[in-house]
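Go through this chain.

——
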Amino acid sequence: MLNAILLEVGSGLDTGSTGFMLVATSLVMLMTPGLALFYGGLATKRHILAIMIQSFVSLGWTTVLWVIFGYSLCFSGGEGGIIGNFDKAFLAGISLDTLWAGNGKIPEYVFIAYQMMFAIITPALITGAFVNRVTFKSYLIFLTVWQVLVYYPFVHMIWGGGLLAEWGVLDFAGGIVVHATAGFAALASVFYVGARVDKNSTPNSIPLVAIGSALLWFGWYGFNAGSEVQVDNITSLAFINTDVAASFATIAWLVVEWSRSRKPKFVGLLTGSIAGLATITPCAGFVPLWAAPIIGTAAGLVCYLAVQFKNKMKWDDALDVWGVHGIGGVLGSILLGVFASKAINPAGADGILFGNSSFLFKQIVAVVGASVYAFVFTYLMLIIINKITPVRVSESDETIGLDNSLHGESAYDGAL
């Protein structure tokens, strides 16, 4: 099958880039099961399956939406606008011979699959905020509506030739499109749904968290390096920037938490790595390598402080989605406006360090606007969903555990 796909189907086909993008697509797909393991390990024994199924169901349902109309709304028509059109609904007009118009080097089928993996994981990120508390039926409605009215418009506006792209906003792999929108949607869901009955619940399996974290870090190479959508020097830059920033963030979080708690925390170290990965995402292919350690260190420190602030405010974002992904996405998008260099990537822009203050202004406006929109829309959407079906589970169901009360299953024999 792979050999068949790699056969030259057009004069511009680059088999090397096509093969690389198939691997990158597979890596990003692996991130969703990795996220399920990461969140599942952090949940209590009575709620493991309930949080994991919310990630896995997105693999199926998001694919259905993407094929029917999602890809078309994101990447068909609507130049300079907010959303695309339905010209490519059900992937109409796309065949084995169709190359992606963005570079004419890979089959459009490969680009469709690659972008679909981003659509799958983005709403799944939000679920860590309301673990233990949301009904599965309401989540399925949430999963559908949030993608259509939050994720798709921002994909189109930034990556699909829409409004923000024409204005000059950049986002290499999803600081605004993925992490800022998901993180602030998570915060809105926390405010609407309210706190858990048992807020002092502890992770059921830190080793499971470690496995999930490792899969996320591994998959992130496809997430960031693959966003170049071909194999060139920028691909290698995005790859190494991703690893360096994540590593510096990991150590920064470890050191600051160790100095405050007097003990080196493994979960903190793992969380720091995810903060670094989220923060470098918008910057990966646009900034020089020397900026990656700065961005990573800033991610570890700022996201740690955001989580501490959340705790002080008693916002029950159970798995720190806002502090890690939301703040990481905002921070990275702003730092892109500082460190970006056209000498590194001519397709990018110069940041304020290279004499272009207007680009920093555009990045700030775009990421703040996206965050505010995602927050407000999510809160209002949950109000509406609750009129259709209850969003919050009953206190008795939460106490029993959602694995049993909602799904009739248990992760472990005798799970309590």
Notes: Residues 8-401 form a domain with the Ammonium transporter fold fold (CATH 1.10.3430.10). The CA atoms of residues 215 and 308 lie 26 Å apart.
